[in-house]
Specification:
By secondary structure, the chain is of the alpha/beta class. It contains 13 helices and ten strands. The strands form two sheets. Strands 7-6-5-8-9-10 form a six-stranded parallel sheet, with helices on both faces. It has a four-stranded parallel sheet with strand order 3-2-1-4, covered by helices on one side.
Length: about 270
């Protein structure tokens, strides 16, 4: 019996060890964020998934129980030592939602890049966040792309209106609660540019090229330790501040990566 205890991004990161667990254990019960239940039910149909915020009064019987994050403690050292590779992508969008969103987007006329610029509340969230203007400052004005906001807080729409950049648009989804829709939309994008938040984990888990912008003053072990990043997030590249609070250089470098990807597709 495994139970999630952190945010949805962390639950996705820890789920990257499900494949290793499944090779050793047949019957697994997982309690995690309800937005992820349907996603993993399709991937692991013989496992049982529960909404960790709405648990039954009597838990299913199990021989062993541990928090989801302990899968990393159990398996990561061996996986790094043996140069193990996790099957990619970790997540697949719902086929019907992917078809629906693809039809709505219709014929692709410009590259699509998803962005997110805030990383949560509190001091740590503020350190890894920036403004919409800062994340867009690295994109040259003459590059014609559709920039889709996957920011999931209440201020995102206001930020977009105030920026007055015609390239930036809302996703048309409930970015916080409709994760099946968000995953399908991400799969329709050419790249993701984001700070270290749930969107970074979504993009990387879906195998979309993802530029992750990181502050200089936080450890960020999952991204900054190269061997771990390459194991868990092979489709992601990290761009780190050289000076605390100065986002200009990593933002420019991230958009240069995206521009190179776009040029390759033409």
């Amino acid at each position: 019996f495994l139970w999630g205890e952190q945010g949805v991004g962390d639950e996705i990161m820890f789920s990257m060890f499900f494949e290793h667990l499944a090779s050793r254990v047949k019957h697994v019960i997982v309690a995690l964020d309800r937005r992820l239940v349907s996603v993993f039910e399709k991937r692991y149909p013989v496992w049982q998934f529960l909404d960790r915020h709405n648990m039954p009064e009597t838990l299913p019987q199990s021989d062993f129980s541990l928090p989801l994050g302990d899968l990393m403690v159990q398996f990561l050292p061996e996986m790094l030592r043996t140069n193990h590779r996790i099957s990619q992508p970790i997540l697949d969008p719902d086929a019907q939602r992917l078809n629906d969103i693809s039809n709505i987007l219709e014929v692709k006329t410009r590259p699509r890049v998803a962005i997110s610029w805030r990383g949560g509340a509190g001091v740590n969230g503020l350190i890894r966040s920036m403004t919409l203007a800062e994340i867009m400052a690295g994109l040259p004005s003459d590059i014609d792309v559709d920039v889709i906001s996957l920011q999931y807080d209440d201020e995102a729409e206001k930020d977009i209106v105030e920026l007055e950049d015609r390239r930036v648009e809302l996703s048309g989804l409930d970015n916080r609660w409709d994760l099946e829709g968000v995953f399908a939309l991400l799969r329709c994008c050419d790249a993701v540019v984001t700070v270290d938040n749930a969107v970074a984990h979504f993009g990387a888990a879906l195998g979309v090229p993802t530029a992750v912008l990181l502050p200089a003053s936080q450890l960020q072990f999952r991204w900054k330790k190269t061997a771990m990043k390459n194991l868990l997030f092979p489709s992601a590249e990290v761009f780190v501040q050289k000076r605390p609070s100065d986002w200009a250089e990593p933002v420019v470098a991230a958009w240069q990566m995206v521009s190179a990807l776009i040029a390759q597709e033409k």
